[in-house]
Amino acid sequence: REMPKCLKSSVKYPQSVMVWGAMSAAVNAASYQEILEHFMLPSAEKLYGDEDFIFQHDLAPAHSAKTTGKWFTDHGITVLNWPANSPDLNPIENLWDIVKRKLRDARPNTLDELKAAIEASWASITPQQCHRLIASMPRRIEAVISAKGFPTKY
């Protein structure tokens, strides 16, 4: 009845951390453009070199500001049009799900252990997984169009 293997400890308010991965929160247009300038551009250069690419972000105020649109135009970067009230098809949501699933078996006891588990989980995501998610975008968009904006399997 009280065998340790039959018991599971729990806490009412477990420790948690906010995770930031190639995105940011609570920024204004100017700070968003600085992030793009100092982090996105070097990463894009490393990943794509001189090849064209399409940048994706949602309609957060900092993203949709006129000055941000001008920044992308000035840098010759194509931005995916993002309709208002659209389903969140951003593949990074799937990456977060992968991280969460990998963390289910981890039982961190401290904040440092939780951070280490998150970092290890994120680091274990392969480039192939990212490429598959990116390659799924045409199917995702087609599914939303077919469903007339209603929920899809994505």
TrEMBL record:
<dbReference type="InterPro" id="IPR038717">
    <property type="entry name" value="Tc1-like_DDE_dom"/>
</dbReference>
<feature type="domain" description="Tc1-like transposase DDE">
    <location>
        <begin position="25"/>
        <end position="115"/>
    </location>
</feature>
<dbReference type="InterPro" id="IPR036397">
    <property type="entry name" value="RNaseH_sf"/>
</dbReference>
<dbReference type="Pfam" id="PF13358">
    <property type="entry name" value="DDE_3"/>
</dbReference>
<protein>
    <recommendedName>
        <fullName>Tc1-like transposase DDE domain-containing protein</fullName>
    </recommendedName>
</protein>
